[in-house]
Recover the amino acids of this structure.
């Protein structure tokens, strides 16, 4: 199933080494009022994300607070490839 994810952010084991992080996304699916958390991100292709459960998410607008966090942390945000997965 394919969904659009609005006001999204990354959640997960951010304190772990990049190659062993369990990355998930949090946001509003198809502009629902309730926030959702995805299963672990399995694959990325630009703004299209596939999770371990097989769901496909198209990333729409990023959560402004998360974008501010990235900037304050010195993490570069690429809107065309917003999620980077480092595999062992």
């Amino acid at each position: 199933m394919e969904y659009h994810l609005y006001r999204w952010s990354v959640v997960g084991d951010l304190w772990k080494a990049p190659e062993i992080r369990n990355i998930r996304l949090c946001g509003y699916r198809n502009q629902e009022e309730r926030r959702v958390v995805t299963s672990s991100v399995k694959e990325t292709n630009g703004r299209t994300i596939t999770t371990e459960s097989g769901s496909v998410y198209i990333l729409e607008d990023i959560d402004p607070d998360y974008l501010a966090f990235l900037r304050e942390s010195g993490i570069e945000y690429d809107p065309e490839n917003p999620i980077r997965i480092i595999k062992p």
